[in-house]
Amino acid sequence: MLSTFYDDMLKGNQMKELVKILLEKSGYLVLPYGYESTLSDIRKKLNAKDAKNSRTARRLRSTPDLLVYNDKRRDAMLVEIKMRRAPKETKVLIYPKLIRHIKEFWDDCVLVIVVPSGNVFYAQKINQLETKEAYNATKDFEKLEEIFTRVKAEDLSFYRAEALKIMKKQGTLAENSGRKET
């Protein structure tokens, strides 16, 4: 069980790091923000089955992954990144509980999903997402570059290919959909 925890953390961190680098290369200042980064020692305890599900614990568990600062607009965004196996970008499963927790505490956060099909990178402001089990990334989300307008097409193309390599290596492409999502 502990091994699975660390395996899942590593898989998720690879995609978070890839998105972080893409945004940095595009001229954004990007800082780790999530509790995996800033409160890593307490993460296992808060995720334990017998841990209390207090409002504070839920808030900490739902802390977005990145703080992205746009110096041209002089504005900051909180960003949550999720990699999902999806045979098509038109059916992306995201636990409703996850969306509810993010909405509860981080309503102005941007959710970035990375899927092994279609545009690969999609983003949406969490307050514009309806809470449901499956999303159509082409209708419920925007392309990453529509929210992060400084992302260049050539960089996006390169990082899409890199994301697909990571997902293939991790066995998270659609053909291996029996494994747990990260």
Please provide a brief summary of the model.
The protein is of the alpha+beta class and 182 residues long. It contains eight helices and eight strands, in the order αβαααβββαβββαβαα. The strands form two sheets. It has a six-stranded mixed sheet with strand order 1-2-3-5-6-8. Strands 4-7 form a two-stranded antiparallel ribbon.
What does it look like?
This protein is α+β, with helices and mostly antiparallel strands. It has one domain: Trna Endonuclease, Chain: A, domain 1. It has helices at about 1-25, 35-40, 40-45, 55-60, 95-105, 135-140, 145, 155-170, and strands at about 30, 65-70, 75-85, 90-95, 110-115, 120-125, 135, 140-145. Strands 1-2-3-5-6-8 form a six-stranded mixed sheet. Strands 4-7 form a two-stranded antiparallel ribbon.
- Main sheet summary: 6 strands, mixed
CATH topology: Trna Endonuclease, Chain: A, domain 1
How many E strands? 8
CATH class equals Alpha Beta
Count of helical stretches: 8
Q: Output the radius of gyration.
A: 16 Å
Instruction: Compute the separation of the termini in Å.
Output: 14 Å
Order of helices and strands: HEHHHEEEHEEEHEHH
Strand content: 15-25%
Helix content: 40-55%
Chain-wise SSE layout:
Blueprint (H helix, E strand, L loop, with lengths): L1 H24 L3 E4 L2 H4 L1 H8 L7 H7 L4 E5 L4 E9 L8 E2 L2 H10 L4 E5 L6 E5 L8 E2 L1 H4 L1 E2 H4 L5 H18 L12
Parallel strand pairs: 3-5
Antiparallel strand pairs: 1-2, 2-3, 4-7, 5-6, 6-8
Helix pairs in contact: 1-8
